[in-house]
Amino acid sequence: MLSACQLDARQRRRTCTVEVCEPIEDGLFDVILDDTVLYAEGGGQPADRGTLDGEPVLDVQKGTDGRPRHRLARALAVGSTVDAVVDWDRR
Predict the structure, then answer these.
(1) What average pLDDT does this structure show over 42-55?
(2) Average per-residue pLDDT in the chain?
(3) Contact in structure between 53 and 13 (CB atoms under 8 Å)
(4) In the predicted model, is pLDDT for residue 2 greater than 80?
(5) Which residues of 26-51 are buried (b: 16+ CB within 10 A; e: fewer)?
(6) What is the percent of the chain where pLDDT is above 90?
(7) Range of 53's domain?
(8) What is the pTM of this model?
(9) How many domains does the chain have?
(10) Which of 38, 51, 85, 88 sits between 20 and 30 A of 18, alpha carbons compared?
C-alpha cells in the first residue's frame, strides 16, 4: 500500500491515526500510523523530519513490514488521531 506522501509528494500535512507505539532503545518510541506524509529513509533519500501533534519526529525508517516507523521522544496513544506535518523547509 502506498502512503499519502508517495501518492502526492506535495502534501504537507495529514490527519492520521496511531496504530502502533512501541518503546525502543534509549527511551525513544517507534510510531506506526495508518498513513503518513513523511518519507522514510531509503534508496539514498534521507528521511523527512516534521512533527506528530507538535512532537518532533527524529527519524523515519521502513520497518521489516515496509511500513514507515516514526521515531519520537515520547509515546503517543494507540488509536489517537494526530496531525502529521512535514518540515517543508528541510525537505
Answers:
(1) 93
(2) 93
(3) no
(4) no
(5) eeebbbbbebbbbbbeeeeeebbbbb
(6) 78
(7) 4-86
(8) 0.91
(9) 1
(10) 88
C-alpha cell at 27: 527511551
For residue 62, what pLDDT is reported?
93
> Is 91 a member of any domain?
no
DSSP 42: B
| CATH number of the domain enclosing 24 | 2.40.30.130
In a domain, 68, yes or no: yes
- CA distance linking residue 48 with residue 53, whole number of Å: 16
- Would you state the cell numbers that stand for residue 84, as one nine-digit string? 502529521
What grid cell was written down for 71?
521515531
| Rounded distance between C-alpha atoms, residue 85 and residue 38, angstroms | 8
What stretches of 1-91 adopt beta strand conformation (E)? 13-23, 29-33, 50-52, 55-57, 59-62, 68-72, 81-86
The tens digit of pLDDT for each residue in 4-37 reads 877 788 889 999 999 999 999 899 999 999 999 9
Q: State residue 5 phi and psi, 5-degree precision.
A: -70, -30
